[in-house]
Amino acid sequence: MQKILIKNIKKLVQLRDVQVSTIKGKDMDVLPCLDDAWLAIDNGLIADYGSMSDFPGIADWKDLQVIDASGKMVFPSWVDSHTHIVYAGSREQEFTDRIKGLSYEEIAQRGGGILNSSKKLQDASEEELLQQALPRLHEIILQGTGAVEIKSGYGLNLESELKMLRVIKKIKELTKLTVKSTFLGAHAFPLAYKQNKRGYIDLIIKEMIPAVAEEKLAEYIDIFCEQNYFSFDETIEILEAGRKHGLTPKVHAEQMSHSGGVEAGVKCKAISVDHLEYVNEADIKLLMNSITMPTILPGAAYFVSLPNPPARQMIDAGLPLAIASDFNPGTSPTGNMNLMQSIACIQYKLTPNEAINASTMNSAYAMQVEKELGSITIGKKANLFITKPIPSSDFISYSFGSNLVETVILNGEVYKG
Ligand code: NIG
Ligand code: FE
Asked: Which of 85, 62, 63 lies closest to 139, judged by CA?
């Protein structure tokens, strides 16, 4: 494996000597960096770093690839802890319908929304799904993402949920990304069970969860806790059933209304609760005493014109906060984590430092890769990106719409596509 030395780095961003698992409250605005630095990569890992002023001779390094990063910055890869990147087709007709005045809910009531994607997915083969997902993965890699969580949830029957999860397993094998997989059978009630919701919940608990666990197809179990989707009690029942089979809970919580998703998530020791547009004071208190990472998904709130989540209030209360993309065909047809930073800063008044901490260390915690990713730390996986020449780290979220990622390194190798 090639050894890489990056020298003359204008700024090495998000340096953490001491292992931290989450960054909370006021600390979120602190971003440890080193100016005029070098970084050594060996055997897929971050081997060492330091100041150019005490640049060591690395005489014993043979076949060393040297990258001159003059004027450029090095960031740890973005960690995107919430996506639905495996899907069939697209839903721009619904986008246009919403522009003309229909709401997300009205479209869903007409059989659009998740059920629209579900029909398309059920008709697609595993190979077709993989071939549609790979270019999306390529795109997010070029935008700086180095780890991604991917959910099922458009299958909505045993066979198609397993098909989605098998595609995610293939993605783990085929791409250089670090991938975690989530079973989201409880994403919506399929048409066939519209009058028999109990029947679908039983199917999830008695057939889907055991089959997913048996084939070791997922690390997490997720659920859409929302009016017309899954209730508070159903959320607890399904998450508990998943936990019994070794699946760690996550929740789509408080997205379109206050539905108790945060409370259910905290109760079930969810690793994250995601969306949070309708989070209230009581939820913030519950999160303060929990292991659960509050995660905002700025792409979805922006695309569907939801109210802003009270991100500032959560950080000011002392909570940690993570940012993920929610890449999916219905509410966030992009996985561009640079854009997520900008929306969080512009719309929710996070500082650029807070947004960077939220998209690296804290999102790494939300998919349990904080020991191997999320910061520049000796011994962590060398998943990082080198920017184009930029004046400051704030410039990333400032330059909304631009991709300032120039070179991507995954598992210690320069990504060539
Ligand atoms: O995270 N909220 C539920 N699920 C997705 C949207 C799914 C879809 O519309 O296809 C989300 O926003
Ligand atoms: Fe989602």
From this structure: 85
The atom of ligand 1 lying closest to the CA of 87 is 10
Q: Is 328 touching ligand 1 by the criterion CB < 6 Å?
A: yes
Task: Return d(Cα 98, Cα 336) in angstroms, integer.
Answer: 22
DSSP state of 325: -
Q: What CATH homologous superfamily does 79-366 map to?
A: Metal-dependent hydrolases (3.20.20.140)
β 145-151/45-51 pair status:
unpaired
Tell me what percent of the chain is helix, strand and coil, each rounded to the nearest 5: 40, 25, 40
| CATH class entry, domain 3-76+376-414 | mainly beta
- Helical segments of 258-336, H only: 261-267, 281-288, 298-303, 311-316
Residue range 369-415, pLDDT digits in tens:
999 999 999 999 999 999 999 999 999 999 999 999 999 999 999 99
Ligand 2 centroid to residue 186 C-alpha, Å? 12
| Domain residue limits, the chain | 3-76+376-414, 79-366
Assess whether the region 3-76+376-414 and the region 79-366 belong to the same CATH fold.
no
Residue positions counted in the chain: 417
Closest Cα partner for 351 from 415, 291, 394? 394
For ligand 1, say whether the CB of 295 is within 6 Å of any of its atoms.
Answer: no
Decide: helix, strand or coil at residue 293: strand
**3-class DSSP assignment, residue 78:** strand
Q: What is the pLDDT of residues 277-324, one digit of tens each?
A: 999 999 999 999 899 999 999 999 999 999 999 999 999 999 999 999
- Please indicate whether residue 160, judged by its CB atom, sits closer than 6 Å to ligand 1: no
* Atom 5 of ligand 1, residue of closest alpha carbon: 331
